[in-house]
Amino acid sequence: GFVILYRYHFLYQMDNNHQKMKIAIIIPVYNEAQVIKKTLLDLKKYFKTKKLKNIDLVVVDDGSIDNSGQLALTHANYLLTHKKNCGLGAALATGIEFAKRNNYDFCVTFDSDGQHDPKDIGTALKKLANYDIVIGSRFIGTHSNMPKSRRLILFVSNLITWLFFGVWTTDSQSGFRGLNKKAIQTIRLKSNRMEVSSEFFGEIKRLSLKFSEIPIHVRYTKYSLSKGQKNINSANVLVKLLYMLSR
Known about the structure:
247 residues; alpha/beta
């Protein structure tokens, strides 16, 4: 479960396309005290520049043992907390369940480590006018600056995702996603950890959701690379994914 600790109003003039829409930016956090404040401030700066309102920053603190939650408390609209670390999948499930219970029209999942660019949120929201779910891809357009060491392993992950779920994607492990209300209300995540990224495509297939990709720009830093999934862990993710599918 989750606990709502704090809320404050975040009001800017809304553009015509989303004037009456409720939008949640879901940000899973685990021990990100070094960067979470900047991530949230960058998001707020973007929304202010675009004169957007009705957008809530929803931080899911997945049992951090540093002060990530306390730092997020100052800048987020909602802070949801897990008493212990449950994993990325569990944090995303908590955020999406919150969006479902509170009748949001759209939500976007957004990494807490500073890799994602807030400007890509606008692109996702526009695309969601015609699709149920959009995935931000680092491999389309001219945005990708991914280290070469990760490209091959991610291609293999894309292939495995396609074999399991019958949905082809150029970036199955992307943490940037946009969901419309239909997706928010119907997606059910079972996996608790990193395999959740592939599970989203299983839900796309199961629910016959209309799906598209958008190019995103990812800002790799020494910090984000040190916090990200290591190539050696990919086999472990695959084993967990196979176990999840067998249940």
